[in-house]
Please model this.
Amino acid sequence: MDLENVTKDVSPVTSRLIRKPDKTSGFFSMSDMMMASPCINKKLFSPGPTHVLSPVTNLALNMDNLAGLGSFLFFLSPLSLLIQVCSERRVQRSKSFCNHTEIEKLLDKELIGDFTKPFALSTVEGKDQDLKYITPEMMVSALSGQLDHLVERIVVIDCRYPYEFEGGHIKGALNLHQEEQVEEYLLRTPIAPLSSDRRVLLIFHCEFSLERGPGMCRFVRRRDRAMNEYEYPNLHYPEVYVLKGGYQEFFHHFRMQCEPQGYRPMHHQDFKEDLRKFRLKSSTWSGERSKRDQYSRLKKL
Model:
């Protein structure tokens, strides 16, 4: 590496130290050393604690006489400074790759979406690593009021089609199977807890919680992030979950918690036409949303 180019990226004083060692001794002059760093200057020429410096620098500085000063001069040699500059460049380059997504990956395992507190509900592994899954047992515990000291309201979003919902659903669940419905209910006027010490939880599910439920959960988080773009990492709904196994699994274990106490699958023989109609509507809405998203991105350019 060309030393001349390196000196362009460092401070004027450091550049001077790299270029101008003392001509007679081969080391840097005392005046240059005093200018190099207020922190080093203070330690060399006045008594005081060393905890503000690095362990390596402290080791060199913690000498009872000036004989130790000769050892310390190595740390200010052109070679040492060159190595330090190169190291700092690598650190800066690595930092430049950090973004919101990487930060979320580091914190998402333990903290809710705004990184302020741990999750209120115990989670389990599921199909998608980016989502938080809960068991039917955890769902019943939460809905029965066992977490009232932490949770103010639980909103259960059933993303199945209406004919499925009418055949049986979890008590108190809302049937919102289109993104437009979810956006209208949850995001146009976000639900906020009355007390800052308690939370609003969203729990999504569909028949098996493989596609529609997880997809709607991601949609809400994506729109929530967009709405709070300039207040990151704030969110209206920082705590969202997916019911593992969906309604099928919940109904199998907790039939009494459903109303009516039935289970109508999506591919029911009597509702083929309904399925075709709702799938067509979902495709149309997704296409319109994609166009709106593209238009919004173009407006920001």
User: Anything to note?
Assistant: Residues 135 and 264 are 21 Å apart (CA to CA). The chain has two domains: 3-96, 100-277. The two ends are 39 Å apart (CA to CA). The chain has a mean pLDDT of 76.
